[in-house]
Structures are given as C-alpha cells and as structure tokens.
Amino acid sequence: MNKIKNIKLVVTDIDGVWTDAKMHYTNDGDFMKSFSTYDGMAVQILREKGLETVIITSENSKIVLERAKKLKIENIVLNEKNKLKKLKEICASKKISLKEVAYIGDDLNDVEVLENVGFSALSNNSPIKDKVNVDYVTVRKGGDGAFREFADLIIKER
Q1: Which pLDDT belongs to residue 2?
Q2: Is the distance from CB of 155 to CB of 10 less than 8 angstroms?
Q3: Cα 127 to the chain's mean position, in Å?
Q4: Do strands 101-105 and 9-12 pair parallel, antiparallel, or not at all (unpaired)?
Q5: 129-146 burial, b if ≥16 CB within 10 A, otherwise e?
Q6: What is the pLDDT of residue 28?
Q7: Does domain 2-157 have CATH number 3.40.50.1000?
Q8: Among candidates 149, 95, 91, which has minimal Cα distance to 117?
Q9: How many angstroms separate the CA atoms of 87 and 116, rounded?
Q10: What does 75-135 look like in DSSP terms, one character per residue?
Q11: What is the mean pLDDT of each run of 10 residues along the chain (158 residues)?
C-alpha cells in the first residue's frame, strides 16, 4: 500500500468507527457510548511512531471530548458539519496536504473527506461500504477495534 508511506496525520470519525454507532439513553435523558480500549491503544501507538490522531465528528458530545482528553488527543473537532473544510484548515495549519492524511469514517457525512485524502478507510459495519470506493474496509466493526486495525495497517506499511 504505497499510499500509506506519505501519511503524516491520522484523522478519524467517532460514531460507527470508535463506537458501534448506538447511543444508549437512560430514563433521566443521559446517554452513553462504549469505546474499545483497542482503539485507545492505537492512539498511543500512533503517537509513539510520530503520528498525531485528530478527531472530527458531527456529534456534539461531551463523552467524546472526555475520551479524547483521557487519550491526550489535542486536536478534536466536535459538531462539525463540513468535515472537509475543517480538515483543509487543519492541514494548512500543519503545512501538509490532504494527500498526507489517512482518514477513517463510516457514513455519508464522511464521503467528501474520504474522496480527497491520501488513504481512506471505512469500518466494516458502514452502511455505505458498497457505495463508496475507499482504499480499505476494516475487518473489525466500529466499536470493536476498527480504528486499531486501521492504525496497525498504517504503522505496518509506513
């Protein structure tokens, strides 16, 4: 996978990639998400290899913010409806091109980014995996280590 050799930044969606895309609500109106510790370890492994992880999600979730804080992810963007525009801004600030970005997503709001980055992936449970041409579809489902699989592939091929 020659495209991976030039990757300088790893960017990820959350729901459907780090989670199983389900939101659990309590009677009090609180909601919960569950995250795989495998994906958390992937962030640490990427960091050790000199690759930053960035989260861009259309959700406005304190839970995601807390997960990112625990994992020491400094660049997290919540409630973003135009992910490609935001990613272009991030790339400009880091002086890298979109072709130096690896991105994993899972749904329609990720398509524009997937079509413009250097290495694109979908989680196996993605409802659009048969509709969008990406470089890689994970074997693991979102919430079950899909991001870890993606990260391991990047590290192995770099």
Answers
A1: 85
A2: no
A3: 16
A4: parallel
A5: eeebebbbbbebbbbbbb
A6: 85
A7: yes
A8: 91
A9: 10
A10: EEE-S-S-HHHHHHHHHHHHT--GGGEEEEE-SGGGHHHHTTSSEEEE-TT-TTTTTS--S
A11: 92 97 86 93 97 96 94 97 98 98 98 98 97 97 98 96
